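To whoever picks this up:

The parser on our side crashed when reading a file containing two proteins. I've narrowed it down to the boundary between the first structure block and the second sequence. Both blocks are reproduced below exactly, byte for byte. First block:
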Amino acid sequence: MIRSGSDLFDRLVVAVGTHPEKQGVFTVEERLRLLRASLRGLRNVTVDRFENRFLVDFARSVGARYILRGIRNPADLEYERAMRQINADLAPEIATVFLMPPRELAEVSSSFVRGFAALEGWPKVVRRFLPAPVYREFLKRSHGRTPR
């Protein structure tokens, strides 16, 4: 999704936010570091964080005219449609653009990946869904091993 966005826009800011009701595998600082490592080579992409504010307010603060969001399934569509309407009310000058992920990643979510980590042979399966820096860190967290 980020690679597609970098092809579509002259400049892409990947905004990492926090959700008070979700506990991720990685801290915000780790997510920022892993994203930056995974996106090396995409010269028009930067990674930044925002907390305790609406995404449209962050977008406005970095001069964005668009918010790029991904839609994997009908549930995402309903949620993102509602968020798009709210964002348009808050910042009508910022449009929302939706992309669908490539087929090989269409069903992938963090819950999906974490669920695999309990099954025999999971590293080989999970490797296909994660960028190399994230995969290596996930392996360390899961079993204290590094990939071969």
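<<boundary where parser fails>>
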Amino acid sequence: MINVKKISSSDVLGITASGLCAIHCAITPLIFVAKPILENTSTIHSHSHWWALFDLLFMVLSLFAVYYSSKQASSKTMKWLFWLAWMIFTVGLFFEFIHVQFGIWLMYFGSISLIVIHFKNHLNHQKYSRNVCK
């Protein structure tokens, strides 16, 4: 029998991590634009390197979420979609790190894909648990 609570937790983690990553990616350019202004008007020193650590954090969180969700996914297609979306997201992160121009679009596409796949997987397992409990 499938452990619905475990699936729900990993899907919620995946949705949350991917959503926060998309927000992080959207806010980053604004922070870098504001950075010179903030440095000139205050005593704040540059700590932009810690901001890049969020990329690694999101990649690791999404890896755990994809691993557990795909392990319990109801179909092989869903398992492949999880890993494909994660790979696109990770390649996008790497490309962004080495300053390949379209890397950010791969990150957005992978992140949004992970949100949709986790949400679909979560709904599939809620439907399954309702049918089992009847």
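After patching the parser it read the second block fine. Residues 4-41 form the longest helix (38 residues). The helical segments are 4-41, 48-71, 76-97, 103-133.
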